[in-house]
Structure formats: C-alpha cells, structure tokens
Specification:
This protein is mainly α. It has 4 domains: about 1-65, P-loop containing nucleotide triphosphate hydrolases (Rossmann fold); about 90-155; about 160-265, no CATH class; about 270-485, no CATH class. The protein is built from 16 helices and 4 strands.
Length: about 500
C-alpha cells in the first residue's frame, strides 16, 4: 500500500503542496485533479523522491519510502522519455535493465506488455512509426516495466521467469544424452593423453553456438524468432555436434583403436558398469554438494538485496574463471596419479601429486595478487558505467574480491586433493569429508556470519572460506596419510 502522510513542499515563501494525505491500497486505482499550479506534479515528485518534502513523508506498506521501494514503482510523467528511432522491444528492455531487471526477464515482460496493449506484432517497429495513441501505450508499458524489478531477485521469480525456464529445460532435455556421452568421451580422450583434442572441439563449438543463437533467438536470416526456445535449440544442436566430433576422434586416433570403443555395444559389461558406478556415484555426489553450497550462497545473498546479489555474482564469476585452471590441473593429476597407481609406482605417484600441487599453488598466488591489486578494474568489466547502481555494485564487489583472493588457495587445494584421491580410486570417504565441510561447516558459518552476527556479504564469503579451508585440510590429510607414502605399491591386477 502506498500512503502519503502530511506531504508539504515550500519554495521559499510559496507553499506548493500543503499537508496532503491519502492512501492507495493494492489493486486500487486512485486519481486526484486540480488546476495548473495546484501541486499535482509536485506531490508525485515528492513520492518518487525527485523532490524532498518540506514536511511529511511517503510510506510503502507502513515503512518510509526508500530508493529500493521507488525502483519498483512505474512513473509516467507528462514529459516523454522514449527514443523515436529505437525498436519498441529494445527500448523497453533497456529501460527495464536500468531498473535492475535481467535482460531475458525484461524481454519476456516487454513482449507480454506489448501483446496486452495490442502491439505484439509491432515489437520490432520503431517508435516513430506508431500513431500518437500507440506511442502513449508504449509509454505506459515502459512505466509498467519497472514494476517487475523484483525479477532480478532469484528468490522471487515470477511466473514469466518460471515459464521461460521450463521452456528452456524442455528443449535441453533432448541434449542430455549428448552431454553425458560427451563427458565420458572427454575423460576417455584425456586418459589417452589427448586433452588438446577436447579443447579444440569445445572451442569450435563456441562460435557455432553464438551464430545459431543469433539466428534462432532473434529470427535473423529468415528464421523464426524463437527467443528462449531458440537459445535452447542452439545449445542442444551444438552439444550433439560436439558429441559427433568427439566420437569421430575417439575411434580414429591410433592409441584408441586397441579399446574397440564401438564394438559389441549390444552386450553390456555389467562388472565394468558396477565398478564405474561405484566409483562415479560418490564423485557425482561430491560435485552436487560443492555446487549446491555455492548455489545456496546466491539464495542467501538475495536476501540481502539486489546490489549484494549483483556484486556476489560478479565476484563469484571471476573466481570461477580462475578455478577452471585448478580444475584442469586436478583432472590431469587424476590421470597421472591413476597411471602411477595402476603401475605400482609409489614414487611416480608422489611426484605427480607434488607437481599438481606446485602448479596449482603458483597459479593461485598469481590470481590472489590480481584480485587484491585491481579488484575494481576486474569487477567493473561486468557493468555498464552508466548504470546508476554500478558504483555501489563495484564497491561491494571489490570488497568481496579480497575474500575471493583469500580462498583462491584453499579452493585450489580442495580441488587438487579431490583429483588426487580419484586417481587412487578413493571417492567414498572424500565425499563424506566434502559434504561435512561444505554443508555442516561452510554454509552454517556463512549464515551465522552474514545474518545473526551482522557481517552481511563479507560474512557470507568468510563462511565460504571456512568451509573450503576445512575441505582442503581434510582431503589433503586423507591423501598424504595413505599407505603408499611409506612403501611401494603393488601393480594393479589385470
């Protein structure tokens, strides 16, 4: 409910608005009239925060109106604020983004409003091509776009966003067999010492995906405009093409021929399947536990507001990019350690482990230096400098980058330790250690520091640091405390 309580505005000796009070309940339409100079515009400007009241206040649901409240109010003044030579949907999306709405959600909402106002077939027309009456409809639609600023908060998704997600997931279901098979082939080729082939196939898929998105999302080159469905179709098509390329490589490489990859596919090797399942299930659950921890931080950060959520997303995205290097080193360590373990070479196993740790620590120190030295420059790359919220987001993201720098090392070590343990077929106990570290230590610590103790976003990241530190310590102790440290290994059977 919107409430004006005793609003008064004076300009020197002149009182433009004198003790105005009214209420507008949810779903109610209210108007007030008066001659020129009666104070109608001044009243609206005080409610919107454009003018400071000389006395009185504006309330939203009984609370003093804040900037965040006003961001959710659509305001259409007499003056026009649209661009005559810009397509309707483009400027609606642009105006919504200025209010913090995500691009996909803004586009969905814009198309919905244009359809509601009878302009659904003119979304790509320029404003100047419309009649004055239809231009006014677009102006109203632009004002209503602001009312969905809460779409930027994942915890408050609207039916429109849910529908978009369902649409994308329905299409991507058909890509899941390709994704899963490609993951298996990636590991197979990496074990053969051909990770470069996997990299080439992955990189080659990026421009193809971008081109298909351009065609299918926006309806270019005569294709239908499919929006989210087009994006999903593009990704699904690329996934199947990449699987075909990996399969071709897997059967054509000389070192792969002894394994007869595509022979006797109709005969299941149940003992091998049981072995793979027993080894792979704990690995999968470990990944779910880790990704679930970071997903939960998004939810908790959303409780703190849109600015903390945006800053968190930027800082975590940057940290995730550097983590990919450690993940690659971890996968290589799994192969090297696994080979040494299979050959009964304890010394080679230790050398491979130490090499992975040294490489990962070296890169972590470089990343830490960059995070601590130029946090504002890094986070600023993700924002439009013209966004009024950009300074606040960059300032908070720069603070979070300090914590991201601190947990670079422990995050790297837990990833390397997991890779080393997988190489020696030790996955069940590491899964338990990871779940305890992430969910019983890290997340509770993040919640406690962020909310009851009042540290806010930095406290949440400090909790992540605590959880990752426990995981790194426990997993590394697990690996280096095993029997192969004291005696040579027996060669693996078979």
């Amino acid at each position: 409910m919107l409430e004006a309580r005793g609003l008064t505005r004076r300009f020197g000796d002149k009182t433009a608005v004198d003790d105005v009070s009214f209420e507008v309940a949810d779903g109610q339409m209210t108007g007030f009239i008066g001659g020129n100079g009666a104070g109608k515009t001044t009243t609206m400007r005080m409610i919107m925060g454009v003018l400071e009241p000389s006395a009185g206040e504006a309330l939203w649901n009984g609370e003093p109106m804040t900037r965040e409240h006003r961001r959710r109010i659509g305001y259409m003044p007499e003056e026009r604020g649209l661009y005559p030579k810009q397509p309707l949907i483009d400027q609606l999306v642009y105006l919504a983004q200025l209010r913090g709405v995500a691009p996909a959600a803004a586009r969905a909402r814009g198309l919905e409003l244009l359809e509601r106002f009878g302009l659904g077939d003119r979304a790509k027309d320029k404003l100047e091509a419309l009649s004055l009456g239809n231009q006014q409809r677009v102006q109203i639609a632009a004002a209503l776009m602001a009312g969905n600023a809460v779409l930027a908060k994942p915890a408050e998704a609207t039916p429109a966003i849910a529908a978009l997600a369902q649409e994308w997931l329905r299409v991507m279901l058909f890509a899941m067999p390709a994704v899963l098979c490609a993951m298996a082939l990636n590991s197979f080729l990496a074990a053969l010492g051909r990770p470069n082939a996997v990299l080439i196939v992955t990189l080659a898929g990026l421009p193809v995906n971008a081109a298909l998105n351009w065609v299918l999302i926006w309806g270019n080159l005569g294709a239908p405009e499919l929006g989210v469905t087009g994006a999903a179709l593009a990704s699904a098509a690329v996934n199947w093409l990449q699987l075909a390329a990996l399969l071709l490589l897997a059967v054509s490489l000389p070192e792969a021929r002894p394994y007869h990859l595509l022979q006797r596919l109709w005969r299941a090797d149940w003992p091998a399947a049981r072995q793979v399942f027993a080894l792979g299930l704990p690995i999968g659950l470990t990944l779910v536990a880790e990704s679930g921890m970071f997903t939960s931080t998004y939810i908790m950060m959303g409780w703190l507001g849109t600015v903390p959520l945006a800053a968190h997303g930027i800082a975590l995205q940057i940290a995730s990019l550097t983590f990919m290097v450690h993940l690659g080193i971890s996968n290589a360590a799994t192969i090297r350690v696994g080979t040494a373990h299979g050959n009964g070479d304890a010394a080679g196993l230790r050398r491979a482990a130490l090499a992975a740790i040294i490489l990962s620590v070296g890169f972590a120190l470089l990343a830490m230096t960059a995070f601590l030295a130029i946090p504002r420059a890094l986070t600023g790359l993700y924002l439009n400098a013209g966004d009024p919220q950009a300074p606040a987001i960059v300032a908070l993201a720069a603070v979070l980058m300090v914590y991201a720098g601190l947990f670079q090392l422990v995050d790297a070590m837990q990833a390397i330790a997991l890779g080393l343990l997988r190489g020696v077929h030790d996955t069940r106990v590491p899964m338990v250690l990871a779940v305890v570290s992430y969910w019983l230590i890290g997340l509770p610590a993040a919640w406690l520091l962020a909310f009851p103790l009042g540290f806010g976003p930095p406290g949440l990241w400090l909790g992540l640091l605590v959880g990752l530190s426990f995981a790194a310590a426990l997993l590394m102790a697990r690996f280096w405390g095993r029997s192969w440290q004291a005696a040579p290994l027996a060669p693996a059977a078979g």
